[in-house]
Amino acid sequence: MKRDWLPLVLIPMLAAAAFPLVGSSSSWVTLTVAGLAMGLMIFVMASGLTLTFGLMDVLNFGHGAFIAVGAFVAASVMLALGTWMQADSLWLNLAAFLPAVLAAMAVSGVLGLAFERVIVRPVYGQHLKQILVTTGGLIVAEQLLKVVWGPDQITLARPTALRGAILLGDIAIEKYRLLAVIVGLIVFAALALTLSRTRIGLLIRAGVENGEMVEALGYRIRRLFVGVFVVGSALAGLGGGMWGLYQETITAAIGAQVIVLVFIVIIIGGLGSVGGCFIGALLVGLTANYIGFLAPKVALGSNILLMALILLWRPQGLYPVAKR
Amino acid sequence: MPEPLLSLRGVKTNIGRYHILHGVEFEVAEGGLTMLLGRNGAGKTTTLRTIMGLWRAHEGEIRFAGRDIAKLPTPDIARLGIAYVPESMAIFGDLTVHENLILAARSGPPDQKRLDWIFARFEALKRFWHLPAGNLSGGQKQMLAVARAIIEPRRLLLIDEPTKGLAPAIIANMIAAFRELKDGSSTLLVVEQNFAFARQLGDTVAVMDDGKVAHAGGMAAFAADAGLQQHLLGLGMGEHQ
Fold first, then answer.
1. Residue B238 contacts residue B226 (beta carbons within 8 Å)
2. CB of A128 within 8 Å of any CB in chain B?
3. Eight-state DSSP code of residue B109
4. What is the pLDDT of residues A209-229, one digit of tens each?
5. Contact B84/A214, CB-based, under 8 Å?
6. What are the pLDDT digits (tens) for B3-52?
């Protein structure tokens, strides 16, 4: 069996190509860790979206709403647990961080369940209506966030123990980015194990390839889809919570802002592919950081350029999903 | 006279604005093998897909084991004991051969005796057990598609063109497998273009033409009637030997 390793090789190739351009090895390590952290946070937000598209061909532009809600819920919990957040103990900091992201996941998951039932279900199989209706859902969600949390941005300081950087000689690695890397890798490992080692994972992979045949084998693909949609929404909430803390300011538009990156990642990866989404997210994170350092003026368009180059090479993304 | 396992009465199916089935009527007796024949575009595949609920009959009745299944969702139809092998095979290419069969065995891990029986017929599946099914050849994919349908005993097997593109040796194995299934407790409804294959296996035949069943009866009588074959299938003398 020939595994397609080429997309995976792109990550070290990109890092290696950036090394002589960056010049200093300490800056290169800092940028690389920052890029990986950013990529993994985007992966957490994007993984559910790519699976829902793969399973039911649903283009959900409202995914940004789950990210935004996650950011606000996590921020509220962390602000409420302010004394723990500002304590000098890492354990107390984590004791505030953990319930915050769990609450973000729970609220975003429940919102996802309602969103699927009310907004997505009536437009199954109708891409144009999906784009219109789910974008509308995102706009409504943004306004509701302003109603609940007010129109002003929320400023959120990172927990004391996660501020600053770890210094290894000349190399500075931000502590919060290390946490983002750890959380992102845990989510990736959990998803990869679920998809490869469990029956439900096999069903999801089979459903992404050919949902009709999964139904003909006696399984209800709609039920599976709702489950994936809810988990995907919860992960978006987790990613939103982490992204909010990464940015340290939260506005109602946080979801709409990051959803562009999320879509770039799932298109680069090949719609429906979790592995592709993972590699796509890392490429996007690394590119944004390297280009932001080397040529800040073109940083804004760098991810679009990356997507264009990858689609020129592989028009259906890094790991196209074989459909029916 | 015992009630047939499957019966279709006045089944009409539209795909978009095209009327494909115009009132299909035929019966499949329990424990037998019925061949559904007809020229390309006659409506054979649409009939199987309509029975399976993948396309909806907008009129007519489909009864399976005494129950009207025309309005049931596809998973419920499958859970009544109907397995389907589509013409496209629809194997899951990203999953291994093993994983394809795990999913098809709904009630738990595949039974080892049943697996051994399948391996005896389709040896390649054992050889490529841990390979992604997308890497199999066309014939091996067809074997896997059939194996997926028979990994657990089912009351009715709907099989669309099982010999398409297969080597003669594999067709012989397929014939043997279908005979053993028929001798067991399964009933088969098979769409087939290969008349030599169909006449070897079929107990009964239904021949479709323009979205309807134009002829239904015993296979032996149909196989002996070259004029009827010529009329309904366009077969020359050389083709039906």
1. no
2. no
3. S
4. 899 999 999 999 888 889 999
5. no
6. 899 999 999 999 888 899 999 999 999 999 999 999 999 999 999 999 99
| Per-residue pLDDT tens over the stretch B102-160 | 999 999 899 999 999 999 989 999 999 999 999 999 889 999 999 999 999 999 999 99
Q: How far is B34 from chain A (nearest CA, A)?
A: 21
The torsion angles phi and psi of A164, rounded to 5 degrees, stand at 75, -165
Find the Cα–Cα–Cα–Cα dihedral A79, A83, A84, A89, rounded to 10°.
140
ipTM of the complex: 0.92
Please name the residues between 156 and 215 in chain A that touch chain B, using a CB distance below 8 Å.
199, 202-203, 205-206, 208-210, 212-215
pLDDT at A297 over 90: no
Partner residue facing B103 (CB), from A2, A206, A322: A206
pLDDT attached to residue B238: 47
Residue in the structure block whose two tokens are 């009866």: B217
- Asked if the B6-81+156-240 domain carries CATH number 3.30.460.40, the reply is no
Nearest to B190 by CA among B204, B169, B170, B176: B204
- Alpha carbon A205 to its chain's center: 19
Angle formed at CA A128 by CA A125 and CA A134, multiple of 5 degrees: 90
Determine contact: A218 vs chain B, CB below 8 A: yes
Q: Are A218 and B75 in contact (CB < 8 Å)?
A: yes
| Domain layout of chain B by residue ranges | 6-81+156-240, 91-153
Continuous segment of H or E residues that includes residue A112? helix A90-115
The fold for domain A6-313 equals ABC transporter involved in vitamin B12 uptake, BtuC (1.10.3470)
Let me know: does B171 contact B1? Beta carbons within 8 Å: no
Residues B200-238: b if buried by 16+ CB within 10 A, e if exposed: bbbbbbbbbbebbbebbeebeebbeeeebbeebbebeee
Closest alpha carbon within chain A to B78: A218
Domain ranges of chain A: 6-313
* Model pTM score: 0.86
Closest listed residue to residue A217, CA positions, set B112, B53, B64: B53
DSSP string of B128-154, one letter each residue: TTTSBGGGS-HHHHHHHHHHHHHSS--
A129 touching B (Cβ < 8 Å): no
Pairwise CA distance, residues A130 & A146, whole Å: 24
Among A124, A215, A220, the residue to mutate for chain B (most B Cβ within 10 A): A215
Question: Tokens representing B30?
Answer: 């329990």
| Summary mean pLDDT of chain A | 92
